[in-house]
Design a protein that fits this description.
Length: about 400
């Protein structure tokens, strides 16, 4: 009890000393999620999910968590560059509830450390300090691309371990994190396999079909709202533009999403552009099946082939990164490279019969768990696909856009 009172007193003192910082930092409202209203009978307060790093930009980053009981959560964060002993740069708290989300103002430094503390009565659990390293303008960018982790937690844990070891600045995840996005327990299981990854590496995500349009995914990762009528986002990192699109929405020619993507690409001066979607345009797997006229049967695949890829080729996009098929496949489509990286844990798929006819652009196909490491400098971008044993299964290089 004495230690609890001491912690509470310490929190009050820090709050008083941090008035100026708090004036510049506000807590985001609780995310819209089934978790915000569900009841719980657990006796002990604990962090059931998180912390999770989601969307970020030059000024802010998001931290999200979920507690087992209704509680207030306090976040304290500071740069570890100038004053590692000072925790007063950012100090925020959430409203009492189960789901907690913070939009944290960055201090201008490339590295920040933060801690979450949950308070309910006399219980004050605290997360381990986590440090996030943000991409630095003018420096090389490294990101990991992967997708389709659902169904097999141990396989996902192995892929996540490889991604952590690669030490990326961020992760681009192409959907299907869990088998059913409406089931909170599956999200708990997903996050539990890689706590270090989620607490220290920002993640930019796109919606897959297995998320089932659940608001839980948006609640944890805060994909940025866009001008289009879907969860689309774009982020500039020096010479690199990353774009994520909700491939299951309407991508008909002339529609709102197509207009948004066209403008986003047309306005960009980036030397390298990577567009991520869950749905490939061509594939050698079952999702690439075509009808008697040779058109993809699945609507998102067909629209990717007929609308999205021609647009990417028009603006000389570096690569189109997808999932949906549980394999690794690189296809050199007309005007753009397509990377299918759907081997983060889901049951693996092989090629269909007559795969060459279905996808004449395929160059490399490997049925294995894997992740992709993308390194971008001012002069060149490279991708290496790596399996969970550390073996390189493919590599490709790209020159800057002209």
């Amino acid at each position: 009890m004495k230690s609890t009172r001491f912690v509470l007193c310490l929190l009050m003192c820090v709050m008083a000393a941090s008035t100026c910082a708090m004036a510049q930092s506000t807590s985001a409202p609780a995310a819209s999620s089934p978790a915000t209203t569900q009841s719980t009978t657990q006796a002990a307060l604990k962090f059931e999910v998180g912390p999770v790093l989601g969307s970020f930009d030059d000024d802010f980053f998001y931290v999200t968590c979920r507690t087992s009981l209704a509680a207030k959560v306090y976040l304290k964060a500071d740069s570890t560059i100038l004053r590692p002993d000072l925790w007063a740069a950012v100090y925020m708290h959430s409203s009492e509830g189960l789901m907690h989300s913070f939009r944290v103002k960055r201090t201008g430094q490339p590295k920040m450390t933060y801690v979450l503390t949950a308070i309910n009565g006399d219980t004050v659990p605290e997360t381990k300090p986590a440090t996030v390293n943000f991409p630095v303008a003018g420096q090389p960018l490294r990101f990991v691309a992967m997708g389709d982790s659902r169904t097999n937690p141990t396989h996902w844990a192995a892929v996540a371990a490889g991604a952590i070891a690669a030490k990326p600045d961020l992760i681009v995840f192409s959907g299907d994190m869990v088998a059913d996005g409406t089931k909170e327990k599956l999200w708990e299981e997903f996050f539990a396999q890689a706590p270090e990854l989620f607490s220290s590496i920002p993640m930019l995500v796109v919606m897959g079909n297995h998320e089932r349009r659940s608001p839980t995914m948006e609640g944890y990762f805060h994909m940025s709202p866009a001008d289009a009528k879907a969860i689309n986002w774009s982020r500039n990192f020096g010479d690199t533009l990353l774009v994520g699109i909700d491939g299951e929405s309407d991508w008909s020619a002339g529609g709102d999403n197509a207009k948004w993507l066209d403008k986003t690409l047309a306005d960009s001066k980036a030397k390298f552009i990577f567009v991520a979607s869950h749905y490939p345009a061509w594939s050698s797997g079952g999702h690439g099946a075509v009808d008697e006229q040779g058109k993809p049967i699945e609507k998102p695949v067909r629209e990717a082939q007929e609308v999205i890829v021609p647009m990417l080729a028009k603006y000389h996009v570096t690569a189109y990164i997808c999932g949906h098929e549980h394999c690794y496949e690189r296809s050199e489509l007309p005007g753009v490279t397509e990377i299918i990286s759907g081997g983060a844990g889901a049951p693996l798929y092989g090629k269909v019969k007559n795969a060459e006819k279905q996808n004449p652009y395929s160059k490399v196909f490997v049925k294995t768990l894997h992740y992709c490491v993308v390194d971008v400098t001012a002069k060149q971008a490279t991708l290496k696909a790596i399996d969970t044993g550390g073996k390189e299964i493919d590599s490709v290089k790209w020159e800057p856009r002209k």
